[in-house]
Amino acid sequence: MKCFGAIVKSIEGLAKTKIMFSNDVQQELSIIDNLEGIEFENYIGQLVKRNGYKNVTVTKGSGDFGADIIATKNGIKYAIQCKRFSSTVSSQPIGEVLRAMNAYKCQGGIVITNNYFTKQAIQEGEISNVQLWDRDVLISMLNSMNKQQRNDVIVEESEIEEKIC
């Protein structure tokens, strides 16, 4: 696991990542761009939590029905698909998040990336009513966090059981 101001520990077999948000957004983006998949999912889970989402749960890696995170805001349950890519993101994750919305009985879907979306992905997101959060939204979320919200936090890898649907 790559560290980004992060300390990785194993406590009784449960991996925990200590995430420290940087006060320098450009430095933070550079760190984000180099995270591994599960690290990015845990990072985004904490970021959405710090931006007002509740009941934030990072799903298990495989068999997650296309959702990396399940979270609630303003009474709406969201399936969130995370894509840390070095190139633009196609429309494929939109289909994944739509399946996840059905599987987890969510009312909303979000695909978030550290990059940008293709024109087709943007069109399909609009048609499907799936929110597409690109690098600019990520920067906005990082900028909106105040100093206290940037305190060190622990993000645990966790699983969503099918029972919560």
Question: In summary, what is this structure?
Answer:
By secondary structure, the chain is α/β, with parallel strands linked by helices. The chain has a single domain (7-160), classed as Trna Endonuclease, Chain: A, domain 1 (3-Layer(aba) Sandwich), CATH 3.40.1350. Helices cover 33% and strands 25% of the residues.
Write the SSE topology:
Blueprint: E1 7-11, E2 14-19, H1 25-33, H2 37-50, E3 54-58, E4 69-73, E5 76-83, H3 92-103, E6 108-113, H4 119-128, E7 131-133, H5 135-144, E8 153-156
Parallel strand pairs: 5-6, 6-7
Antiparallel strand pairs: 1-2, 2-8, 3-4, 4-5
Task: Describe this structure as you would to a colleague.
The chain has one domain: Trna Endonuclease, Chain: A, domain 1 (3-Layer(aba) Sandwich). Helices cover 33% and strands 25% of the residues. It has helices at 25-33, 37-50, 92-103, 119-128, 135-144, and strands at 7-11, 14-19, 54-58, 69-73, 76-83, 108-113, 131-133, 153-156. Residues 1-18 and 151-165 have low confidence and may be disordered.
Lateral arrangement of strands in the main beta sheet = 3-4-5-6-7
The CATH architecture classification is 3-Layer(aba) Sandwich
CATH topology: Trna Endonuclease, Chain: A, domain 1
Counting DSSP H or I runs of 4 or more residues, the number of helices is 5
The total tally of domains equals 1
User: In terms of per-residue confidence, which ranges show pLDDT below 50 for 5 or more consecutive residues?
Assistant: 1-18, 151-165
Tell me the name of the CATH class.
Answer: Alpha Beta
The main sheet comes to: 5 strands, mixed
What percentage of amino acids are in beta strands? Answer: 25-35%
Which H/E pattern describes the elements? EEHHEEEHEHEHE
What overall form do the CA principal axes indicate? globular
Structural class: alpha/beta
What value does the average pLDDT take? Answer: 78
- Total number of β-strand segments? 8
CA radius of gyration is: 15 Å
